[in-house]
Amino acid sequence: MYIINMNNKQTNSNKINYNNNRHGNNYKNNYKNNYLKNQITTTQIYTKQSPKAFFSGTVAYVAFIVICLLLLTAIIAPLVYFLVYKKDKAEPNPQPSKYILHPEEAADIVGYYSWAWDNKNPKNAETTMVLGIYYSGDTPKNTLKNIPSSNLIKAREKFINIGGDTEESAISRVNLSNINKQLYQYIREAGWTGICYNFKVCRREDNPDDIIHTLTSHFNWCNDAGLKVMVATSHLSPYGCSPAQKTAFENACHANSHIISYISPLLYTDGTTLELPDATEFISFMNKFATKSKILAGLPFDSAWKQVQTFAMQHSYPFDGYTIWKQ
Q1: Domain that holds residue 192
Q2: 228 and 259 in contact (C-beta within 8 Å)?
């Protein structure tokens, strides 16, 4: 006969349930702990890696922007170069800017010499010639005898020449002693437009101060009388003067360039052959005078104009016109 201890059975059942519950609780706790652990680990990983990821992304973005800007610059820069720089190079403005002549074009100002011993005028003197110069090459005293002859010049502007190729005809204090301020007024009333001071030679006894004083006085008397002042010289400076006398002549002309209407370098010696000047000396000459006075090339004949103007334009100082020696 078996006696079942119900209390013991109940006790065992409770042990099993307890163990099962404990095992279940452990599983749940383990799952919860593992889940939380994984969450913490993931959060830690995310938190630790975020700055690096952010930095890498920012660098990549900046690098992309820089590359785009470089590519854009590489495309635009050549366009700007060809549209702006090349255009400026292809179409330079002549210097000084007031000169816009081309060698093949007719000069704005054309003049001629009328020899006193021949009294000839070009056929087109009245229609196309701006100025005519009555030239005798005689002493200044004898030149005064030609004052009533302004009607012999047919151009619009009539100049009477003073000065020549000899010491007797040279422009100097002694040789111009008979010409005073009142005489310039008389020359104006006789129908002349101006005086052409032809300065080629100097008297040996003329000192530089005399030259400066004489030229300055006569230039101003001429201008005060309402006459135009024109200066002509052999090539770029008088050939028959000492270096000191040449410097005095240049200084006097430069100091009075604001009242000198025309300066004419005579690009010939005997009047038959064109002689182009030295480039360096030409540029120096034009730098002194071209900004205030009109520069007229003295040519032996009119067909030399294109050659002379081409030379001048190569050095950025085109002539304003020319005069012709040959009749």
Answers
A1: 109-324
A2: no
